[in-house]
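COURSE: Structural Biology Practicum
ASSIGNMENT: Worksheet 4, Part C
STUDENT ID: 0417
INSTRUCTIONS: Below are two proteins. For each, the amino acid sequence is given first, followed by its structure token string. Answer the questions at the end about the second protein only.

PROTEIN I
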Amino acid sequence: MSTARGFLAEFREFAVKGNMIDLAVGVIIGAAFGKIIDSLVKDVVMPIVSFILGGQVDFTNLFWVLKEPENYTGPRTAEAIVEAGGNVLAWGNFITIFINFLLLALVVFLMVKAVNRARRRFEHEEAVAEAQPEPTPDDILLLREIRDLLKR
């Protein structure tokens, strides 16, 4: 019974540690952030790329059919062909996901860089504040003057 209590106590300590909570918050924010980056790529970057390339380019619909289903007459989309039993190499979807990754990495890099810059500025301000002596309150200055006058 003592072993079970020790295990539960150890688990409780692990679960309520600040690091565990920070990790959970980071995962939740990361998932939401991933959705934002997906939208950025799909709704902003890819239309610009399509415009630059001079057409309606949608990388997610670029694929090669490796094995077409027998007697298939349905739509020529990767999802429909796979659903019908075909085999496709969806290289366009890979390109889209790779662009998502690059944008996510860029945004995370910029955020970390901004946080580091803010941290350095804060540490510098703290160091400057510690280097300067705190101003002496007026009552202490008055008491020092009285002390000096009494000494004379």
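PROTEIN II
(use this one for the questions)
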Amino acid sequence: MSVVQDQGTPPEAGPPARLLDLGLRVAGAVVVVVAGVLTGVLELLLATVRVGGQLIGVSVLLAVGANIVLSWFAHEAVGRRWAVALPAVPWFALMAVAAIRTSEGDLLLAGDNWVGLAMIVAGAMTFAVMGFRQILSPPPTLLG
């Protein structure tokens, strides 16, 4: 008779532990969606920043850095590979709305603003690369 227990299978979590896990995942998803909207708004505000009369690309750098962090956090918080879509969808929607002229003639992202265009391309590519990396990553293994 062996004294060592079988370490290959983890013990099953009871209903309270599963509910807590689900609640934390949902809360993480909500945080990621809100953060996607907030970073998109901040990037739009910074797309017109000028120094000495010249546009600077601070919102492009922010878009790349924030989208990397949001994609990583979404995967860690939700625990699913598709979680990269949680910050990406509201970010894309916000950028699409910002590029449409209102009936009053207001436009957040003009076609002659190279920073705004670069921000959209860099942010979209960042989400695409992060999503691609998560899809291709091997499934996690349980170490026993």
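ANSWER KEY EXCERPT:
Q1: The CA atoms of residues 55 and 108 lie 15 Å apart.
Q2: The radius of gyration is 21 Å.
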